[in-house]
Amino acid sequence: MELYTDRTPEAVKNATGLHLITEATPNGKKVQIMLEELKDVYGLEWTTSLIDLETDEQKEDWFLHLNPNGRIPLLLDNTLTQPFPVMESSAELLYLSDNFDKDNVFGFDNKREHSEAVQWLFFWQASGQPNQGQNNHFSKSAPEKIPYAISRFKTETLRIYNVLELRLSGHYTAIPRQYLAGAGKGKYSIADVGTWPWVRSWKYAGFTDEEMAGFPYLLQWIARIADRPAAKELPRTPPQIQAISPLSSVNSNQFASLNDEADQTSDSPIFQPAMSFKGKKPAEETTSAWTVSLFSLIAQQREAMPT
């Protein structure tokens, strides 16, 4: 199957080396951090194309040839004989770790420690990310405020935060940790890279200082990673990104220069809900409306239940 079509942007077709197609979202941030970390250690160069989520550019045919799921980020490896697309942010972290972190600076030689890193990477991908994303959607973007949905996803996200707190505090091991995976206090790894961009946005997710006070080790972990140079390279907010649309290509140094100091707050507008009704096609609006209707029905049924 041909990867590129007549509609594929030249910035993508002509990219060399590692090329990241992304936007300013927590999932996009994961892979950006990893690429920046690899650049700092190995001098790895990479380029990026910024995609317009507001116009559903990621749903266009040229993009679906690269990722049938129509989601960003998408990593293109042009270092091979044929360009190789890698979809799903956690899979991209593993791909970069396996193929470009030759000294396992962000991974582990020990199989058990490697398994730990993968477990925590998958834990956030499968448990934390979906719940926090839906929390953001129903509390901020849904056309109808549904108390049951808001409460359900907020409660579950806080439960996930508590699991991370238990891990970092050493509650069951008596050894407080600095990072999620690795022996002793742990080592900064892809497990942390894959989790941090979401958890750091707890204010945007609507959690209060009082609620987060119950997670002191998690807050320390957030601050610890925030001090890393690669984590400070936040892209600009959506209006500033749109100024260089349509899809354009920049190298990693130029991408870093798009940063604003204001974007480094955890309630930055770059952390948009995973689902938005703005600019969506009718079919997607119908799907989202169906989801809202389902939660309305569930809420009504719960209210009707005898106490």
Main β-sheet description: 5 strands, mixed
Percent range for β-strand residues = 5-15%
The CATH topology annotation of the largest domain reads as: Glutaredoxin
User: What is the C-alpha radius of gyration, as a whole number of Å?
Assistant: 20 Å
Mean pLDDT: 83
CATH superfamily of the largest domain: Glutaredoxin
Derived structural class: alpha+beta
Distance from first to last alpha carbon: 58 Å
- Uncertain segments are 236-246, 254-291
| Secondary structure: number of strands | 5
In short:
This protein is α+β, with helices and mostly antiparallel strands and 307 residues long. The protein folds into two domains: 10-103 and 232-264, Glutaredoxin (3-Layer(aba) Sandwich); 111-230, Glutathione S-transferase Yfyf (Class Pi), Chain A, domain 2 (Up-down Bundle), CATH 1.20.1050.10. The protein has helices spanning 10-13, 26-42, 61-66, 89-100, 111-141, 147-169, 190-199, 209-212, 216-226, 238-242, 252-257, 282-304; strands at residues 18-22, 46-50, 74-77, 84-87, 248-251.
